[in-house]
Amino acid sequence: MSDLLPHPVTGQAFASPVPPGTGWPDDPAAAGTPVAETADDVARLAAVADLPALDAAVSVCRACPRLVTWREDVAATKRASFADQPYWGRPVAGWGDPQPGVLIVGLAPAANGGNRTGRIFTGDRSGDWLFAALHRVGLASQPHSVHAGDGQRLLGCRMVATVRCAPPDNRPTVTERDTCAPWLVREVALVAPWVRAVVCLGLYGWDAALRTFRSLGYDVPRPKPRFGHGSETVVVSPDGDRVTVLGSYHPSQQNTFTGKLTEPMLDAVLRRAAALAGVLEG
Ligand code: SF4
User: Which residues have CB under 8 Å from 195's CB, separation 6+?
Assistant: First the structure.
């Protein structure tokens, strides 16, 4: 653990990584939150958690040794431009409306983004793009998401990462993906009664969403629908509820710098999801 540094919004001093339950804005955990140390622990804890307990348990999970080492090393070392800030350095839980009409599924937190700020898609260029678009279509209260505690709110919308810890090179292993999957499966199950549209950022999120719905007993088309920007498919719950799954190119710098993904393209997918979910534009 590194020296104490002030939180950019609150000014409270924190070590990096941040000990659970010590006052970081939106920290879902307490000092006594149970810690998953293995894949079996993840499955066992996820199976019985409600949403607050799930967020808490996710945020202290230690089941993937390589990712725990990486996230904590990055937190202690820090990028030079953030050397004066504490780093969250823990898994990043889902964030947003607990009863969302729109669910956004990404890959994993960024080492100097979510792993620093403690909020998904917050503190990096991809997140800047995404939050600006969410605000334009009425799904976020502010155009910027800078840090936990900045007053940003998602409106009728929730964001989750498929893998909850920052992976080296943004590439989790298959074992890490599968170890983390019960957190995602449980979260989707808990919010499913409200979700009408799922926006998958990139192929990784698309595959994860379809795999998750299938594991929850949803009827998912076979062969698996192909991912593309603007692609859509409908999955149907055992009770007959329909959820539209939409694909979007990931707002990575590679995609936005090259023009593969433009602002109107991202807005169109998010606007479609908001309309499907009946979330009004702001
Ligand atoms: Fe736990 Fe998921 Fe992080 Fe692995 S990736 S340590 S399962 S939160």
Answer: 100, 101, 102, 103, 188, 243, 277
Q: How high is the mean pLDDT of the chain?
A: 96
Rounded CA Rg of the chain: 18
pLDDT for the residue 2: 63
pLDDT tens by residue, 127-157? 999 999 999 999 999 999 999 999 999 999 9
Question: How far is ligand 1, taken at its centre, from the CA of residue 157, in Å?
Answer: 23
Contact (Cβ atoms closer than 8 angstroms) between residue 101 and residue 194: yes
**Whether domain 5-277 has CATH 3.40.190.10:** no
Q: Determine the average pLDDT of the residues in 175-203.
A: 98
pLDDT greater than 60 at residue 281 = no
Identity of the residue numbered 113 = G
The gap between the terminal CA atoms of the chain, to the nearest Å, is 42
CA 51 to chain centre: 14
Number of the ligand 1 atom closest to the C-alpha atom of 108 = 5
Q: Measuring from each residue's beta carbon to the nearest atom of ligand 1, which residues come in under 6 Å? A: 42, 58, 61-64, 67-68, 91, 163-165, 176, 179-180
> Could you tell me if 187 and 51 are in contact, meaning their C-beta atoms sit under 8 angstroms apart?
yes
> How far are the Cα atoms of 153, 266, 267 from residue 139, in angstroms, in the given order?
9, 13, 11
The closest residue, in CA terms, to atom 2 on ligand 1 is: 180
Distance 87 CA to ligand 1 centre (A): 17
Nearest CA among 2, 170, 206, 172 for reference residue 86: 2
